[in-house]
Amino acid sequence: METRVPHVSEEENQDPGAAPYGNFVNYYTFNPPENRLSLIPGTLLENIGLGSERVVILDVGCNSGDLSVALYKHLLHEEASGSDFSKREVHLLGFDLDQDLILRAQNSNPFTQNIQFIPLDITDAAESQAVLESYLGRFGCPRFQLCTCFAVTMWVHLNHGDAAFLSLLSRLASLCEFLLLEAQPWKCYRSAARRLRKLGRSDFDHFKTLEIRGDMAAHAREHLEKQCSMDLVQSFGNTAWDRSLLLFKRR
């Protein structure tokens, strides 16, 4: 069943945390792509052994696509003068559950041959699995070489509960060889709930009953390593919003 995403007004959008699903209209005006890209080396693909082959990337929860496009350019720019650049074929699929944001991403996409944006709800396991498998089939790949998931885990957790949080991590691990994860810290949960109440909206259904609390990056790492056969291979430090960027690899 498709999730109905509430409209976020311009006035509400000025307050980070006002969008119940993280679907902010102008998200990248207050958290620009550089906040993450400044921590991610432009040579990331080479560093993880994907230097001269076709690379298929998945960006989960891409919003209006600004970061997806910036990441694509960032990963290619460093290789522009290198001998392997001409051999590099990078394709990126970005998706978000907000169709209006995806439409904006599609309309502003400067790399339509290599970047595609589609509306999709990762919590709808059956539909998302079919769509993603179909996309991978175009390239003859069993899974994505790299999956990025920036600031999505909290919204799934708040709206769908503990089981969905763990299920999301398991799904991400099953989809890729490398996972670049940014999990919002617990203080963001409290802020999101407080700001939602301030707007006069109902609280998140699961916030008060969540049992997985505290160090969310540690919880994510524990689940990925113990239950999903992934290992943490590098931490790129913390963003300006004090969120860690963690790179995991399939065993």
Automatic annotation (TrEMBL):
Q: What is this protein called?
A: RNA methyltransferase
Gene3D superfamilies per the record? Vaccinia Virus protein VP39 (3.40.50.150)
Q: Which InterPro entries match?
A: Bin3-like, Bin3_C, BIN3_SAM-bd_dom, SAM-dependent_MTases_sf
Q: What does this protein do?
A: O-methyltransferase that specifically monomethylates 5'-monophosphate of cytoplasmic histidyl tRNA (tRNA(His)), acting as a capping enzyme by protecting tRNA(His) from cleavage by DICER1. Also able, with less efficiently, to methylate the 5' monophosphate of a subset of pre-miRNAs, acting as a negative regulator of miRNA processing. The 5' monophosphate of pre-miRNAs is recognized by DICER1 and is required for pre-miRNAs processing: methylation at this position reduces the processing of pre-miRNAs by DICER1.
- One GO cellular component, as annotated: cytoplasm
The UniProt entry, under SUPFAM superfamilies, shows: S-adenosyl-L-methionine-dependent methyltransferases
Q: What organism is the protein native to?
A: Cyprinus carpio (Common carp)
Task: Return the broad EC class.
Answer: transferase
Supply the PANTHER family for this chain: BICOID-INTERACTING PROTEIN RELATED, RNA 5'-MONOPHOSPHATE METHYLTRANSFERASE
The secretion signal range is none
Where does the record place it? Cytoplasm
- Which GO molecular function annotation, any one, does this entry have? RNA methyltransferase activity
- So what does this thing catalyse? a 5'-end 5'-phospho-ribonucleoside-RNA + S-adenosyl-L-methionine = a 5'-end (5'-methylphospho)-ribonucleoside-RNA + S-adenosyl-L-homocysteine; a 5'-end 5'-phospho-ribonucleoside-RNA + 2 S-adenosyl-L-methionine = a 5'-end (5'-bismethylphospho)-ribonucleoside-RNA + 2 S-adenosyl-L-homocysteine
Q: Which family is it part of? A: Belongs to the methyltransferase superfamily.
Pfam families cross-referenced by the UniProt entry:
Bin3
Return one Gene Ontology term, BP aspect.
methylation
Q: What is its EC number?
A: 2.1.1.-
Which keywords, in A-to-Z order, does the entry hold? Cytoplasm, Methyltransferase, S-adenosyl-L-methionine, Transferase
